[in-house]
Structure formats: structure tokens, C-alpha cells
Amino acid sequence: MTGSLLVVVGLALLALTALDVFTTTFSLRGGGPVTSRLARLLWTVSLRSVRRHGALQVIGSAILPLTLVVWTAMFYAGWSLVFVGGDASVRDATTGAPASGWERVYFTGYVLSTLGNGELVPGDGAWRAATVLAALTGLAMITLALTFVTPVLSAVVKKRQTAHRIHLLGSDADEVLGRGWDGDRFGVLSSELRSLAPDLVALAQQHMAYPVLHYFHAAHPSTALAPQLLVLDDAVVLLGHGVAVDHRPDPLSLRTVEGSIDALLVALASTHIERDGRPRPIPPLDGLGHLGIPSVGDEEYERAAGHLEGRRALLAGFAAAGGWSSER
């Protein structure tokens, strides 16, 4: 491969890396074209080959540092090709002789790391400007790593905290309704549902801003968002369509939490999940009778809940994308 072609390939690789970094860190449209596909491939293979949630937690957590490593490797490879392909791009500081190919790769490494040991120096003219630009690239990578990792880890904590808040309401929909029922209404439960809505909407935005957030897996279902969202939606379905009208929570609370669940699922569907061909069935009414909660008839319930199939299919898809079962 000729020197000029190496320079062109190197510049193209740098442009692709810059696009990937920019899209991942500054865009709300999902991850970059390279790292998002790599992460999705790794996660898909892991789901098919690994059955233990503890192992999936380790693999998912490794995707964030892997993203940073890929960016670094791509920048390093791109700049190495540029300097290797350029005539007299790097020379020996003592003798002034042109550096060898591996010396140029070495030069690229310490320029990107902003170390600079003085053994090798850039050639004249444009190569000095290229060296400064490469050093700025390295500094930008360090800065982006710090500014990107910190909010992602904060979002991971928020995601698990929200899942655990739902878990504290009850381990299944019947338990949620039983704890919230005061013999006539669901006053306290209505307040809890309203307070959960902002957290779910925030998570929707964070999944768009930091697509790698999806791969942070919780080993225990009590802190895993997908299985807890299944429980929450089951409870909302029963409250909004199964409980007798005169005993339901206020409509605003139900619409608020339903809308927040929809917002989260839409955000996930744009980057990570697909509708499952077998939507999660609506929860049965039997539990309401055992709890002494008045309910509508089976036919009315099934008819009213029929329009929920799309959301229930996304919920099943969300569970599958995290290695969880959507079956009861």
C-alpha cells in the first residue's frame, strides 16, 4: 500500500472514529455506528451462550470500558497510518534521519498519550500541525472518557434504584394492590405511582443519551428494571381496567405512570429492543377477588385491556433483551 493511500485510509478511520465518539457522547439518537454494533453483537452472543445473571452482569459492565478501548485503538490506528504513510513525517531528534515505520507508530503513541519524550520529532511544515492535532485528540479522549463515564455510572445507580423502588411495592401485581388497598381506595398507592413516573421518564432520556446503559445488567431481579417493570405494568393494568370503576385510583395517576412506561419502552425500542411475538398476557382477575377488591367482569376486563397488546409485546421484548423471562 502506497504512502498516500495509507494517509487517506488513516484520515478516513479518524473521521469514522470522530463520528462514533460524537454520536455516542453528544447525540440523543443512540450510539455510534461502530461501538453500538459491537456492543449489540457482544450482548446478543452473551445472551445466547450465558445463562447466569451474575456472568451477564460482568459482561454488561465490561461494555463501557470496551467502548473506550475501541475509541482509543481506532484513533491510534488512524494516526499511525497517517504518520507511517507520510514522507518524512517523523525524524530522529538527534540525527535528523527519517524514522522507521515502527518508530512512527511509537511516536504516535506517545503523542496521543501527551507524554512526549523527545527521542523523535515531527517533520517540517504540515507534520508539526498534524502532531499538535494528534496530541489534542489524545487530550480530548481523556476528557471525554471522564465526562462520559461519570453520568453513565450515575444513571446505572438510578436505574437500579428505580427497580428496587418498584420491588418494594410488591413482588407481583396482586401483592402491590393488596398493600395499597385500604378497603375502599388506593390513595397511598396512587401517590407512589405518581412519584415513580418522573424516574421512568428520566431513565428513558438517559437510555437515549447513554445507549451503553442498557447493557448494565443487575444479577438479582429486585434491582433489575425489566422484571420490575413487568410487575409495575401488571399492577397498572389491573388498577386501570380490572378494579371496579368506583374504587380505582384517580385517572391522572394511572395516565401518568402508563405514559412514563410507554416513554421508556419507546426509547428502548429505538435502539435496543423489539416487540416480542408473544406479548405478556394481561394479569388474571382472580387475585382481586381473594384480596376483597371489587372488580369488573372478565369479558369487560379483556375487552378494555385488549388495546395494550403493543405495550405488552415491548415489555416482553425488554425482558428478553435482558435475559429475563416474561412468563409468570
Topology:
Blueprint: H1 3-26, H2 35-49, H3 53-85, E1 90-92, H4 101-112, E2 120-122, H5 126-169, H6 173-180, H7 187-209, H8 225-242, H9 251-269, H10 286-291, H11 298-304, H12 309-321
Antiparallel strand pairs: 1-2
Helix pairs in contact: 1-3, 2-3, 3-4, 3-5, 5-7, 5-8, 6-7, 6-8, 7-9, 8-9, 8-12, 9-12
Task: Write a compact overview of the structure shown.
With 328 residues, the protein is mostly helical. The chain is 68% helix and 2% strand.
Protein architecture, described:
With 328 residues, this protein is an all-alpha fold. The chain folds into two domains: 3-145, no CATH class; 153-321, no CATH class. Helix content is 68%, strand content 2%. The protein contains twelve helices and two strands; from the N terminus they run H-H-H-E-H-E-H-H-H-H-H-H-H-H. The protein has helices at residues 3-26, 35-49, 53-85, 101-112, 126-169, 173-180, 187-209, 225-242, 251-269, 286-291, 298-304, 309-321; strands at residues 90-92, 120-122. Helix 3 (53-85) packs across helix 4 (101-112).
Question: Which keywords apply here?
Answer:
single chain; 328 residues; mainly alpha; two-stranded antiparallel sheet; elongated
Sheet/helix structural class:
mainly alpha
Distance between the termini: 60 Å
**Widest sheet: strand order?**
1-2
Number of helices in the DSSP assignment: 12
Count of structural domains: 2
Q: What is the CA-atom radius of gyration, in angstroms? A: 27 Å
Low-confidence stretches: none
Strand portion: under 5%
Sheet having the most strands: 2 strands, antiparallel
Order of helices and strands: HHHEHEHHHHHHHH
Total strands: the figure is 2
